[in-house]
Amino acid sequence: MTANPEGLALGIDIGGTKMLGVIMNSECSVVAEQKVQTPQRTIRDGGESVLSEVTTMVRDLHLELGLTLGDIPLGVGVPGMVSLEGVLIYGPHLQSCSGVSFQKELTKLLDSKVSVGNDADFAALAEYQYGAGQGHHHMVMVTLGTGIGAGIIANGELLRGGNGFAGEVGHMVLDIDGPPCPCGANGCWERYASGTGIARLVEESLASGHLDSVIAYNGGERASVNGEALTRAARAGNQEALVVLAEVGWWVARGIANLSAVLDPTCVVLGGGLSNEIPLLLPFIKRSLETMLEGGDRHPGIDVVPASLGERAGACGAALWARQER
């Protein structure tokens, strides 16, 4: 192991659809970065495909800067219920890896210490220390992506819970008669307010004869209209697209109001895979949230802001955590 005068640390954020790795210095500036698609498996393979991709990314990033494995701290963020020992107990969006000890397996594959935790927890840590949550000692980072996760800062500390499962807010049930969720329940928050939730709303709107004017933003193809086409149309001021985003914003606000009743944060930071869509959603979220907070006008309100670290937040937070654990 060599000296690390620049305070370099490597963090990897494993998402349901993509995987991002960064090496950052002591000032949280990214000096190397790589992004790939997360291997998709419909059956459990012991996490072999995902572990292989993580290992390759770690080696590639080390090579890019002329580093040797073990030279710098390494952290990995995983979506789902991650135990304090780094085991993915259950991951609805990474089902092939459920039960896999990421910490144990990666430490063995890389022959160096690896710190593993929940991806949204790590995103919250990064935004609290270096991003949009600075100065807010009671903060929630909500990650909107394939699903929904959250990292909770309470009294300036990352709240992981007794088992490490704190923040699995995407599976708060908002409607027991709602659409089924991969977790096994119906009507979970992420069925309405995540990337997959937006896709579902688009599909339902198309089936009911709406969004005809959005088809033009998808090259005239009706069958393949998706969330990306919807946001392109919304940015152009398309009213049908804005109606759907207003509904998504309402559902995001509904979940935030529930979190407020339990955690009383002064700030909610929104990030994740839908980072680019958040500026479009934010006016709808804020307008709806004003009517939902307990106490109405007497409530001092919550700062709802976009993540300033963008999609890098989870990977940067994983690197920060690894540095603290070193």
Automatic annotation (TrEMBL):
Coiled coil: none annotated. Pfam families: ROK. Signal peptide: none annotated. Transmembrane segments: none annotated. InterPro entries: ATPase_NBD, ROK, ROK_cs. PROSITE patterns: ROK. PANTHER family: BIFUNCTIONAL UDP-N-ACETYLGLUCOSAMINE 2-EPIMERASE_N-ACETYLMANNOSAMINE KINASE, ROK (REPRESSOR, ORF, KINASE) FAMILY. This is Unannotated protein. It comes from freshwater metagenome.
